[in-house]
Predict the structure.
Amino acid sequence: MPVYWSNPVQHAFSMNFHIRKPFKRLIIAAFLILLLTQLTSGCFRFRMSESEVYEYFKDTGQQPSLKSYKIDGRTIYFADIGKQTSQMVIFFHGAPGSWSSFIAFMSDKELLENFRLISVDRPGYGYSDFGKAEPSLLRQAELIKPVLELNRSDKLPILVGHSLGGPVIAKIAMQFPELVGGVIMVAASIDPELEPSEYWRGPLRMSLLNWMVPRSLRVTNDEIYFLKQELKHMLLYWKDIRIPVTVIQGGNDSLVNPMNAVFAERMLVNAKVDIRYYEKFNHFIPWNNPQLIKEAILDMGSVKSVYNDITSN
């Protein structure tokens, strides 16, 4: 539901009231918003401490390695678990989020038997320079490239991206095709024409309210504000993706238009595309229906011969 803010100062003048009382109320309201934001800011970090991670995994028999590296003045943080020579599966969260958005997959025994699992804090989230946005999808791809280069398997990595993580992994596949073996996009925002025109995002970036918003939500707003433009830049390059692509989309998704799945099928003309559409499911498939992503990973992990056939053309 949209929220409409009135201007109490203007209203006071028009009604010939004394300015001090409404202005005082405005200051008090702003102070209360700021106070509430500060008190609840920890709830909007979407990240776990090392001790919380340890507690989560302590009964599983394995602990993820929590790692980071510096690149071009930025820090990228990620979690890494599983046999180093197994095929890599790399998870990319949406907006907002952090690597722990996929923590249940990182502790899945069947996945760990077959894969090395890595989950990334995308730039600006988690511990990757928290609060410092990077709206450029190309720049994100370049910053995350060193994670792909950790591959020690004879199979190339599978990338899994949810929501805004979807266009990130698509951009990586376009930019570094020699480093990617397959892509799984889950409820991904990829069609620029389906991006909603939310006119409030621009003013929010420039106003005092932006300072009051929790940092993770500020990063989210910055990313989404530029997303339509970024997706337009990608239009000519979807044909360059020649690896298997699985698209998982819920028909009851109120955050990402389900027609994004149709866009993927139309644009990926040189890829083997598997559209998995579920009419009753919503946007939150990684948490409500995680088995769909797990099945897609296991299926893609067994299609090396298909991948070779595609890339040999």
